[in-house]
Amino acid sequence: MKGETLMLASGTVIAVCRSDYKGERKKDFGTGLLVPGHGLRDDAHAGSWHRQVSLLALESIEKMRQKGLTVNPGDFAENITTQGISLVDLPAGTCLQLGDEVILEVTQIGKVCHDRCAIYDQAGDCVMPREGIFAQVLRGGSVKKGDSITVVA
Question: pTM of this prediction?
Answer without folding.
Answer: 0.88
